[in-house]
C-alpha cells in the first residue's frame, strides 16, 4: 500500500475492510465506530437489554475482525456484522432458554405472561416485546436491519418459509396490538373501511 493513511473516516466501507484485512486495526476501528450504534440498535429491537446489546455488539465486531478476510463486499459491511450479531444473540437466547427450562423444572414451573395495561401507551418497542422470540427476531432483522427474508433466513439458520411465516405472524400481531381500540375506530371512522 503506497503511503500511510491517516484519515480513515473518508474511506468507503469496502476500502476500510481491505485495509483491515491487510492488518490495519485503525481501519477496522473506523468501521466499528461507524456502525456500532446500528448493530446495538438491532440487538435492542431483537429484545436485548442495553448492556447485553453492548456485549453482543462487541463480540460481533471481534468476530468480524477475526474473519474480515471473509467479507467480499457483495453486501454491506453493516449487514454482514448485523448477521453475525444476530447469530450471537440467538445463541445467547438458546443458552438462556435451556438454563431457564432447567430452573423451571427444578422450581416446579410457572407461567408468566405479559401483563396488559390498557392505560399504558403502547409503542413499537413494547409491542415487539410481546412477540414470540422467533417472530421478534425475524421482524427485527427484516424491518429493523433491512435484511431480505433470504438474508434473515441465512442469519438465523432457518428455512426461508419459516422466516416468512414468523414475519407474517409477527406483523399481524403488531398490527393488532398497535391498532387503535375498536371503540375509537368505530366512533371516528365508520365510513373509512
So what's the oligomer here?
A: single chain
Order of helices and strands: HHHHHHHHH
Number of helices: 9
First and last CA, distance: 64 Å
**What percentage of amino acids are in beta strands?**
under 5%
Tally of structural domains: 2
The major beta sheet can be summarized as: none
CATH class of the largest domain: Mainly Alpha
- Work out the helicity level: 55-70%
Overall strand count: 0
The whole-angstrom Rg is: 21 Å
**Backbone structural class:** mainly alpha
Whole-number average pLDDT? 81
In the CATH hierarchy, the third-tier topology of the largest domain is known as Rna Polymerase Sigma Factor, Chain: A
What would CATH call the architecture of the largest domain?
Orthogonal Bundle
The named CATH superfamily of the largest domain: RNA polymerase sigma factor, region 2, helix turn helix motif
Poorly predicted regions are 109-122
- Molecular shape: globular
Amino acid at each position: 500500500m503506497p503511503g500511510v493513511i491517516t484519515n480513515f473516516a473518508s474511506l468507503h466501507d469496502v476500502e476500510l475492510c481491505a485495509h483491515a484485512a491487510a492488518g490495519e486495526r485503525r481501519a477496522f476501528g473506523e468501521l466499528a465506530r461507524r456502525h456500532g450504534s446500528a448493530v446495538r440498535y438491532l440487538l435492542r429491537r431483537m429484545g436485548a437489554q442495553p448492556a447485553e446489546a453492548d456485549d453482543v455488539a462487541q463480540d460481533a465486531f471481534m468476530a468480524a475482525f477475526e474473519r474480515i478476510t471473509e467479507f467480499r463486499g457483495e453486501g454491506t459491511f453493516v449487514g454482514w456484522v448485523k448477521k453475525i450479531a444476530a447469530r450471537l444473540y440467538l445463541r445467547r437466547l438458546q443458552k438462556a432458554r435451556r438454563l431457564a427450562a432447567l430452573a423451571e423444572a427444578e422450581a416446579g414451573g410457572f407461567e408468566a405472561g405479559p401483563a396488559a395495561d390498557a392505560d399504558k401507551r403502547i409503542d413499537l418497542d413494547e409491542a415487539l416485546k410481546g412477540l414470540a422470540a422467533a417472530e421478534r427476531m425475524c421482524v427485527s432483522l427484516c424491518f429493523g436491519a433491512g435484511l431480505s427474508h433470504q438474508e434473515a433466513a441465512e442469519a438465523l439458520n432457518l428455512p426461508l418459509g419459516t422466516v416468512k411465516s414468523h414475519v407474517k405472524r409477527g406483523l399481524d400481531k403488531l398490527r393488532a396490538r398497535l391498532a387503535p381500540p375498536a371503540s375509537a375506530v368505530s366512533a371516528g371512522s365508520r365510513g373509512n373501511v
